[in-house]
Amino acid sequence: MSYTYYNMGHLQRGQVVEVTLSGNAANVRLMDSSNYNNYKNGRNHRYYGGLAKRSPVNLTVPSSGNWHVTVDLNGLRGSVRSSVRVLPSPLPTIQDRPLSSVPSLIHRQGVYDENSVDDVRDFDVFISHASEDKDEVVRDLALALQNEGLQVWYDEFELRIGDSLRRKIDKGLARSKFGIVVLSPYFISKGWTNYELDGIITKAVTGEQVILPIWHNITKKEVIDYSPSLADKLARSTATHTVEEIATEISTLIKGQ
């Protein structure tokens, strides 16, 4: 039996072997060592692949181990040339930094009210946002947080032109364990400087991040254009996370404290 043989060596489960053919259809087989030995000795064998009428052929490795590829014309006429390669594996999925990696996001007792011996927070979370974002995302986020069993304060944090951003944020931090800013084109259009917003999200003295930005309908480039340092802060985005996923992550962090 005439065939073209390729020893692929050790391959990991999920890797893809690409077989390129030219000149004719051919039988393409991907086999482990045991089945390849059976194949070359004319015995029954198992394989991945089959009759390839188009090129290239992509075969996914089903388990880690040593693998072999054969190309033959058994039952076919003509001639064929072939080549094989292992396709580059994708990079590992990017993992978001967990919220727990920034412990200063949780505001414990006594942090913001130095005159109070028993500084008990009235709320778990406050959401600072532009009023224009309430219908599209903020109300759903607040409901998702409430469904997680958290006390949420957000109606008084509809920020409008002329409002004092720092006064609003300070009030929220004083009464809540966790602060959120929904950062959107509407929010940025309120006229606050990037210096002011960045200074509120990060403590000026220690540099600790105290508020979680949630990007909504805004790109990283837009955030960088507005405030390069703000773009580097730990954040979540409604483009990559649902409000339910964000709420669950925040709830897990707060309840874990």
From TrEMBL:
Q: Which InterPro entries does this chain map to? A: DUF1883, DUF1883-like_sf, TIR_dom, Toll_tir_struct_dom_sf
Looking at the record, the residues that make up the TIR domain are: 121-254
Which residues does UniProt call coiled coil? none
The Gene Ontology biological process annotation of the record reads: signal transduction
A Pfam match is: DUF1883
**SMART domains given in the database record:** TIR (SM00255)
Query: What is the recorded name of this protein?
Result: DUF1883 domain-containing protein
Origin species, per record, is Cohnella candidum
